[in-house]
Amino acid sequence: MKRILNLNGAINLRELGGYPTVSGKRLKYQKLLRSGDISNLTPKTMDYLKDYGLKYVVDFRSMNEQKMWPDKTSDFYKVYPDPVYPLRGNGEKLARVLPDNEDSYLGLIYQSVVLDKHAQQSYSLLFELLLENTEPDQSVLFHCAAGKDRTGIGAILILKALGVDMETITQDYLLTNLMYEDADVIEDTLNDENGDQTINKMNMTKADVQSISSVIEAIEHYYGTFENYLNEALGVSPEQLEKLKEIYLD
């Protein structure tokens, strides 16, 4: 199946199925989608997503973004508003004591996000819905505006939890740069001139490898292991982690 889904009205819509794990298994197809803005999906694209089995849509955008560009609604999936921003500030404070985290503009922000209590609650809801998605051929789509930063962090957390190796996780993250070779696409369709300028700047900043390593560095610095982070920060117990693997791996 295709990794990049070039569907009309969709921005940076990608399939996560097929990625291998270190245990020798693979992510199931038609279970996980990551995306940017979905406010302009065409009827034909909606038909595709219905056939695909889309059931849950998790919207990481701010309430202002959701108001300006509301998700396309439908009777076959439910939209869950789940804003990552605004952060409470504790994550930024923690991130600034980590070594070498200022090498990457996005890396410092990503560290702030994964350590922030509010953002952790947002990603916790994502994992709750992932655990609910137990029926065959039904899927979860999670998205923000560009499908790079808030969505990128979500993808890192999911892929890492399912046992995908870091090289593959990094390759998936960097695919966004191919989707936005024309920066005008973001500036013209996603940036809110009256909105959060930090989000606007993030949308316009290219993905880089340091961003990925910054996320893992922050998690391991404060939680020891990724599994501890899932359990303590996102509320995903070891038993639930095994359940996730049963749901999403072949």
UniProtKB/TrEMBL annotation:
SUPFAM superfamilies with a match to the protein in the record: (Phosphotyrosine protein) phosphatases II
Residue ranges of coiled coil: none
Pfam families in the cross-refs: Y_phosphatase3
Classification via PROSITE patterns: TYR_PHOSPHATASE_1 (PS00383)
InterPro entries associated with the record: Prot-tyrosine_phosphatase-like (IPR029021), Tyr/Ser_Pase_IphP-type (IPR026893), Tyr_Pase_AS (IPR016130)
Family listed: Belongs to the protein-tyrosine phosphatase family.
Protein's name in the database: Tyrosine-protein phosphatase
Organism listed in the record: Companilactobacillus mishanensis
